[in-house]
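Section 3.1: Structural characterization of target chains.
Under the original work plan, the team committed to producing a structural model for every single-chain target entering the pipeline before any wet-lab resources were allocated. The record below documents one such target. The sequence was received from the expression subgroup and is listed exactly as submitted; it comprises 204 residues.
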Amino acid sequence: MKSRIRETLARAAIMAATTMGVAAAAAGGAHATTLPLQDASITATYNGSAAMLGFDNGYSVSAGGNTTKLDPDAITAEFLSADAVFGFDFGADGSLSIYNNSGFAVAPGDYRFRFDFTSLASPITSFKLLDASAVGGLPLFSILDGGRALGVDLSALTWSGDFLPVTASIEAAQAGAVPEPGTMSVLLAGVGAIALVRRRKPRA
């Protein structure tokens, strides 16, 4: 478990510069506004339970361990699922990278996540796909509770054993804007590709 966490931290750092650069380019054409997830605190659940390990608690199983603030250095994942299969890396700029942390191929299954945000300056209103070419199938993202929570359903996805993430940009309402009521679901199809070669260590 500890080796997987260390591997996730190192790999997330590699991807951080790429993800942040793409998100910054996308934001260049938008109106200046507070960063979508700036100063956010996030509480995560996995299939309806608190089986998520947060950055603030050192990815340990503990009471309240499924709540964390954003990594202030923006170099590592905010959450690992308790089964160590998935990692979630949020950025203040609204970037989201979802990793297969297991090191093995992952078949479709029951993988439903919810992220509740506090201290958001504005409600979340939409997603923009950055890259989903690493997976087969369609991830489902839902905006919940008037833009204060996100649902992420990875159940239909097929993952390879490579550490290539699904990435998206989370966007918030501009000042004075009112989000659409109810839940809005966005199906993300894979487009483009990020060329990333990972050298695996041989298994003992």
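Residues 36 and 99 are 21 Å apart (CA to CA).
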